[in-house]
Design goal:
seven-stranded mixed beta sheet, 5 helices, 16 strands, about 20% helix
């Protein structure tokens, strides 16, 4: 069972915060979401520092030391930083269904079916938010963000931040290594929002007129409003690595080459940070080095696990920060499924080119 702390599902999903503006509980909807979505489950979330925007300075160089003779002189040096501004995005959705859809069966079964519909809708919205974090908005706007795929240094491969598996064709994929932590990469939420960027509001039942051919033809509907508002902050660019040009056609077997590049990416140009806060049973908080999270779409996830298991390069282990059995490469890379990366067969990512 995963330890329930900021190390697992993040602040957005902490039980004490799962409240609607009227004080009513959000039941199990977001708990189910957190258990099914590895990105939200494992990547911690922290409040942005300016409403819907997070402003900070990212270190781009460290101080320099100088060799001097005894009695000699030396220059002063300092770290250099660049300003970083990250935006939160808002995704809303409305669910409507005829009331009798859930009333033609036993009441308890109807309630369960409606609850399942709510969970599916919130999961779909969260998947859309996660997809935008990686790919960005099709039409950038105030509520959109620049996806990781469209940012330097991830738009080309250089074997420092982006590693090339060498595939070609129409079914290419990328997987993303992330080292979570407050000092590396984490999700953002609006601390000023009543439910920290997660909303579910039942709008009740209403009569819809003007249906069919008769003026008096009508039915009764139920409606629910949802909202997910999140962002992504990469404090240390070394904490996010893209493994690109992975062949994922039906007959492709990207086994050893993919494993090799994943391990290379976890070692080369690796961050020194990445700390997770873990709550023990007695309530004591301990800072623990974070593992690498390997985010994959469903097809790559399946190929990676099947092919790697054949060579004993992937194992199921509970020897990890979350204390639950997970597919792992070695003892510090957890393989995660991110359905927001899913592609249909024959419509994969564009070929990622070498940095010039």
């Amino acid at each position: 069972m995963a330890t329930k702390s900021v190390a697992t599902v993040g602040n957005v999903f902490d039980l004490l915060k799962l409240r609607l503006p009227d004080g009513s509980p959000m039941n199990s909807i977001l708990n189910a979401l957190a258990e099914r979505d590895d990105f939200s489950r494992f990547l911690p979330a922290y409040p942005c520092n300016s409403g819907l925007v997070h402003r900070d300075l990212r270190t781009i160089s460290l101080p320099t030391g100088y060799q001097v003779d005894i009695g000699g002189s030396w220059k002063s040096s300092k770290s250099e930083r660049e300003p970083v501004v990250e935006s939160l995005m808002t995704v809303r959705g409305s669910y409507e269904a005829p009331s009798d859809t859930f009333s033609t069966m036993e009441p308890e079964l109807g309630k369960r079916l409606l609850a399942a519909e709510k969970i599916a809708f919130v999961m779909a919205l969260n998947q859309q938010v996660t997809k935008m974090m990686l790919e960005g908005s099709v039409l950038p706007s105030q509520s959109g963000i620049v996806g990781l795929m469209k940012r330097d240094p991830y738009i080309t491969y250089d074997n420092m931040f982006t590693f090339n598996v060498g595939g070609s064709g129409d079914d290419l994929r990328s997987c993303w290594l992330m080292k979570p932590g407050i000092d590396t990469v984490h999700a953002l939420y609006n601390k000023n929002h009543a439910t920290l960027g997660i909303e579910q509001t039942d709008k009740g039942e209403w009569r819809e007129d003007g249906l069919g051919t008769g003026n008096d033809e009508h039915r009764y509907n139920i409606g629910i409003e949802f909202m997910v508002q999140k962002g992504l902050y990469v404090r240390d660019q070394r904490a996010v690595k893209r493994i690109c040009n992975v062949p994922c056609g039906v007959s492709d077997s990207p086994g050893a080459d993919l494993i090799e590049q994943i391990i290379n990416a976890s070692i080369i140009n690796a961050p020194t940070g990445g700390v997770m806060s873990v709550a023990a049973a007695d309530g004591q908080i301990t800072d623990t080095p974070a593992p690498w999270l390997l985010m994959c779409d469903e097809r790559l996830y399946a190929k990676l696990v099947i092919m790697a298991n054949a060579h004993l390069e992937v194992k199921q282990s509970d020897n990890n920060l979350y204390r639950t059995k997970l597919n792992m490469i070695g003892d510090n890379i957890i393989i995660c499924r991110m359905d927001a990366l899913n592609k249909t067969i024959g419509s994969g990512e564009a070929d990622v080119k070498e940095a010039s």
